[in-house]
Every structure is written in structure tokens, then in C-alpha cells.
Design goal:
The complex is a heterotrimer. By secondary structure, chain A is an alpha/beta fold. Chain A has 13 helices and eight strands. Chain A folds into two domains: about 150 residues, no CATH class; about 140 residues, no CATH class. In chain A, a hairpin with a 2-residue loop joins strand 6 and strand 7. The chains are: A alpha/beta, B alpha+beta, C alpha/beta.
Chain lengths: ~350, ~350, ~270
Amino acid sequence: MVNIQSLKEEARKCLQEGKVKYIIGYEKGADGWKANPAFIKKPEDVEKLIWDPTCFHNLARFLVDEKRRKAKEKQPDTRPVGVVVKGCDSRAVVILLQEKFIERNDVYILGLSCEKAGVVDERKLARKLDGKKPVKIELGEKDNFLVFTDDGKAEIPVREILAERCLECKANFPVISDVLFGEKTKREVLNPFQSIEKMESLAQEDKWNFWKQTLAKCIRCYACRSVCPMCYCDECVSDTINFAVTADTTAEEKAQKIKWLEKSPVLSENIFYNLVRAIHLAGRCIDCGECERACPVNIPLRLLNKKMEKEALKLFGYEAGFDPSQPSLISCFKDEDPQDFIR
Amino acid sequence: MDKILAKKDLSQWLKKLDSYDIYAPQKDEDQWTFSIVENSDAISLDYPNVVVPSKKVIFPQREFLLEFSQSNEKGYQIKEILPEEKSVIILGLRPCEGKAFSLMDRVFGGELKDPYYLKRREATTLISLSCSTPPSPHCFCLSVEGSPHSKEGLDVLLTDIGEKFYVESITEKGNRLIDQAKQVFHEPTSEERKKVEKIKSDAEKKIKREIKGLNNIPAKLKGMFDSPFWDEESMSCIRCGICTFLCPTCHCFDINDEVETSSPMLGKRVRTWDTCQFPDFTMHSSGHNPRPEKASRLRQRINHKFQYFVEVHQKYQCTGCGRCISLCPVGIDIIKVLEKVRDYGA
Amino acid sequence: MEPNLYLPKLAKITQIKEEVGGARPIKTFRTAFLNGDEFSHRCGQCAMLSAFGKGESMISISSSPLSRDFLQFSILKMGRVTSALHEMEEGAIIGIRGPYGNGFPLEKWKKKNIVFIGGGIGLAPIWSVLQTTLSKKEDYGELSLIYGARTSKDIVFKEELAELGKKMKVLLSIDVAEPDWKEFVGFVPQNVLDKKPSPENSIAITCGPPIMIKFVIKALKDLKFEDEQIYTTVENKMKCGIGKCGRCNIGRHYVCKDGPVYSWAELKNLPQEY
């Protein structure tokens, strides 16, 4: 079990000693039952830190904001930022290190092991509770979640309301950390690609119809991109304006920037945006599932990213986010890479 | 006028209105969304709430403004593309969305008129379903001068009284719809009227969230413009567009030219939803950005809704529907932010 | 039927003059409507120019309302739309819709001295009011112009300024000394402090880069100009031009509709987000 008191003590010590600028962790949200990201600056505020099955967010995402903030400061504070990470989140930190977006001493990693559980899927939980609103959720004894509602308590087996990505999890404890809380219990995952098998079994035409129907719903709010730690490009392919504009950028450069897609949320542009994002994340996505959770119109984005993950593994034996010294998927090759697509 | 309509007769009423395109909440997998009704027998108004509000019917996420074309014979031509002549009904929207339309009417109307919005608004009749229970745990309509049975902006208000709807017609447009199917409506009894009163007052008591003391908020916000408060509050914002795209009162948009062929030039000028939360919203061509930081953009959203709009229209630009709270991926809660503003410095 | 405010009218570019070349070129365009769609405007108002296929850009009308046969726009090449306009030749067709915004309250300035203070392309928005007051010189007090640019090559309306110097005080400056330059060397706000215009019965109008405006206003305050005596035009990114799309929103105002002309007394009460 993760000892939340030990986490708070470690956090308090880091802040008191001035070892970190601030700590990114989880605190209880305004509605009282779900976690929210928290930015703890003062030692006494570590009491706000929580750890429960609603800690969905990939806090590595805020390391991107920190870097942007530092870039604007004239005399930046060079101390690291403390960040609380689950196993999946730690793989995101590995990618950021691998791509040299941050340095190892920019971050102080407080790792939490999910052990045999993980985070809940809100929709699965809502279906189980059949209209009742959850008030609190805890990990109980014996592979059960304890879900408290207004009028009682339910014990629900972990597997029934665990998020899909946790059921397929490849790293249920952090793969990199400065300090680790909880046990390094390995969890058996029989089929890490189960969620895409149904889609894979469909005929080509049915797959295409499914995606046409689904991506027509996209409202291009860009929540999926905004919540992803790996979507850190200052200028994204889907932006129609230059972002990286300085006083020296010529009018020609701005005028000649290619508009790859229109702002209109029509099917053709939505397909372009979502598929290109999946391709740009191939070999980089570590399946934290935040994009799918954030999507307000319930587009099953994990299907796209998981398929890319399977292809990377199948074709190139490549897995993202375990080794910060590994080269990125797209920018390296091995002599024994398959060549049967070259005709 | 007020009437009674048995729930089983709803489809009969709608069948008489077949010259209209009727939008109603329908379930698409596990989400409710406003879409055109194909089969009026299949409508159920027993739904929690839609994610994308009905503003998308009158203020679509994408619409054409005009077409420009160039030809050897005619030279350059501009052709206006107005919304097509079609009468529309939005059935089952919540009163907060009706209130949102009355707020948007002030923006798109006024001295300088937006013909696209106004044409659609004129052609649309709104039949709302009042809330007997709050559709969202984050509803706070009572705190922003709304109510679960508000009639603002609406044409007809339905109240669910069990097997029947209590039907209140508010405008001429509403009367016209009822007149087209007079025979399916009955006169309400005094018990039924009393039942409605009780349902409405009970509904108000069921709303759990509230913000007290909002009347000082505009002045408080004005004084907090340069405060570091906004840096703190916006730390977890990931600058997506969910809060504003899905807000029934938000109306910011972008205008772009979409080219079909460049030689000869043929294309359309298109308007799409936009949001003050995107970093590029206020960015000048020169790269100068009046709101470069997340803090300034969160401040803008709150200020626009609770200070600037109040200064111009004497109304909050918020209907308390709670969507921004329940859908924000990082849980930024506008009620909590406003409470902190209210108590700041105290 | 009310006119559709989003519909541009077709106009032809009748004259193009290169004011400034190089990396930051400025061209002055004169336009004539194709189908008799002329509108009359007030000094300070702007119009949305369409480069069809690229988009629209809100540009100040720099011609005086008294010039009935044409509209004049001076445009700095900055991005997608302005580059497209710069690539056009005389005879090209563009769209124009407007006029938008408020204008300078000339009627309140009768018999007052007017000091025009411009920097770079910022001379264009105040050019219309300068031309209008100059042609009705007897209605106003003393007219003077303090104008500067980065280098002598960046000065706009060069020939017109030479003509202007015969009718009113024209005090030029450039940022860094050049061999043949005989006038003031330094930034425009410094030139203002050097020339010390008197606030007595005066109005000061300034336009230029945001940083210049800030320091000019400070200089004018140091010279004891009251907030109500200082006017400027504000620039913001605009799309609809009629106060609906939200882009140019500052406080309770939309710059396209409630501005762009502001006195410092009004502007200082708005959030400084422009």
C-alpha cells in the first residue's frame, strides 16, 4: 500500500529544504470526490496531497508548462520541480528525457505504485452505480474498490471498474523515480492489446465507416492534444498560425506557412487532425489514457494510439518510455528491421 | 396560455409539426446529443443533459458567410450565403439554454446585426423542458439569476408531472405550435396546476451548488486585474477549448477563407467557433500577444462573464449549467474561483 | 432589409505607391468601388480589406473624408493577408467593408491647437485627421506634426511630408544617426520632450508601435497635458469588425466597434490588454 503519510513527509522535507521549487501532486477536487492536479509550494500545504483511484491525470504534462515558464524568465530558478507519478506517468517523463525536452536534474520524481489496482473508469463506475453519485472511492482489501455514495457503500471488484488502460498496463509501478512509495508488485496482464482486437477483426470497410462516424463528432476542442505531455510542439501541424514568431520572422515566412488543415470541424479535417496526431505519437505514446478521458464527445482515441503501439512492437520490437537512452522510433533503424513493404 | 399534454400524445403533436425540422435530445452510444428527429415515436425527454448545448443549432460550429469566385466572363463575384429557409423546433432543451439564447440575442442583435444568427433565431421555436431535478451535480442556475423553470428566451415550457406534461406557452411562436394540434391538448385542472407549483419549488430546493454574494463580483474583479491570483488559479489549466466551446453563452468565432480552387479563385468565407482560451486567439500578426499567459486568459473568461458583460448588459454571461465544471479535464471549478474572488483580500 | 455587415463590396486598386522598401515594406493603396458602393467615413475609422482566398485585415482609412473619389490605405507587410495585398498590381480586385469604429471627435476641437505625434506606420491612421484639419485650417489653432521612424528609409509619405512642411510645423526624427540627417536623432517620445508642445488649449493625437504610444503618453503627461487632451488609436487582432467575434475585446469594449479612437482618460480605465 502506498503510505500517503510517507509521501507527505517526503514532500514536506523537499519543500522545507528548498530542494524543489514546488511539487506537482494530486489534491481533492472541488466536487469532493475526484482528484485534481495540485501545485504545492509551501511545506504546510503538503497536507492537501491525496492518493486514490481518481488520480487519473498525467502530471508529467505540467513539466511542459514549467519548461515554457522557465524559458520566459530572465533569471530562472534552476531547482528541479517535484512531480508525483504513477507508472504510466513515469514513462511519459522517460520520453521527455529521451527527447531531451527536459534534463534529469529538472525533475525530482516521487513515484507511486498502483500495485494491483489503478484508476477507475468513470463511465464504468456510473453504469455500476446506476444513477447514484459517488462521494468517495478507496482501495479496499481483497481486490475490491470501496465506493461510497450518498446512501451507502458498495464493494466492487477492481477489474470491473478499472480503466481499460490499467487492465492493459505495462508499468504498474514507476520505471524511474527518485523515491518510490508502495510495493513493486508485478501485475499479470494477459493481453496488453485486448481493447483493439475487436476493431482489428472488422472488415476494412466497417473500420473506415466506424471512424467516419466517430470522427464526425470531433469538435476540435484540442483537449486531447492539450492534455498530452508529448504534444509539446510550440507549433503543431494543425495550427494555422505561426506560433514561433519573433520580431525577425519575415512576412514571407508567415505568409508561406502551409495551412495543412482548415479550422472547420468537418470530417475531412477531423480525420486529418486525429490520424496525424496518432502517427506523430507512434513510439511516443505511453497509454496514460488521458486523451480519451478528456474528450468531451467520447471519441475512443486509445484505439488509434494502441494500434500504433502494437505496430511499433510487432514491426520493430519497440516499446516507448522504459529507457531514456533509447533513440526515438522514427529516427533510428536496425539492419534487421522488416523490409517486406519495400517491393 | 397553459395546457396539459399526455406524454403518450407527444408524438401526435410532433407529427402535426412535420413542416419543421425538429431537434431533440437523442442517445448516440452513451451520450445524449441534439439531432434531427427521424421518428417522433422514439423521443424520450427523460435525459440528463447534453454535452454540446443546443446553441449549435442556431449558432452552428461551422457556417458559410459568403462565396467568392472569379471567372473570365464575370470577373469577381461575391455571393451571400444565408441560412436556408427552414422552420426549426428545438425540443427538450433546458431553461438554462433558453436563457443563454436571450443573452446571445443581445450580442448578435443590437445596433449592428448579425443576419446569420438572427435569421436562424427567428426561424426557431424553443420548447423547453423544465428541470424537476438538477441535470448536473454542478448546476447553479439560481445563483446567476436563473431557475430550473425560467422562461427567459423560450417559446414554450414543459413541466413533467408524471404521465403528462404541463405546457406553458410564452410567446406567439409558442401559441402557433400548440394551435396546430389543438385536439391533443387538454385544460389543466387546479390540482395539476398546484402540482406544477410544487414540482417547481421543489426543483429549486434540489439544487446543491450555489455562490452567495455575487453582486459585488464585478467591482471585485476590476480591482484584481493585476493580482497574482490568476497565476495561481490557472496553474493546472491545459488551455484546451472545452469550457468555452461547450458553454451555452460563449459566442466567440473565427472567420477564414476556405479555397476550393485558387486559379480561377473560388472559395467560401467560413465562420467557426473559436475560444479566448487558445493561445493564438489574440495574437497579432507581428507576434505581439496581449494575452500570452494562461493566467491572462483565465482572467479574461471570468472577467468577460462576470464583469464586462455585466457592465454592458447588466446580466451575468453565465447560466449556471455547470458544463465547464464537469467537463474540464483538470477540474477547474468556476464556482470555486468566484468564491475565492469574492473573498479575496478579506 | 438591413445590409449584411459581413459582405464586402468589390473595389479595384487604382494606385499603388511604394513608401518603404526592404524587409518591412509599406505600400499606399488607393481604391475605387466597382459598383458605386462608396461610403463616407469619419477620420479614424477603419475598413476590412479582403484578399479573397487569404482573408481579411482591418486597416485604417488614411484618406480624408473630404477626398470623395478614393479611399487610401497604407499597409505594412506583416503576414498572410498583407503579403497578398502587397503582391497585387494596379487593377486587382479586393473586397472592402466598413467603415468601422468611432472617429476622432473633430467637432470638439474647434480653435484648439493640434499636435500630431506618429511613429513608423502609425502616421497612417492619423493622416486622415491631419489632412482634414489642414484643409479647414481656419477652424483650428496651430497644427504641428512630430513624426519619427527607425531609419530615414522607413519614413512614410516622404513627398507629402515635404509639402506639408510648407503649411505647418513638421518635426521629424530617426532612431539612430545617419550621415545626411540634420533633424532630431532619438526616439519619438524623446523628440516630444525636446520640442515641448504646450498643453495650453491643445489636443495631442498619437499613434505608432504600442511601446512608443506608452512613452509618448508619459512624455505628454510630463509636459502637463491632461488625460482628456491626449488621443490615440488602439490596434488589436480583428475578424468580424462589428463587435461580435470577441477577438478585440478589451474590458467592456470591442476595439472594432467602440474604438479604435480613445482618449487617454477613457483608455486608462480599460484593462491594459492590447
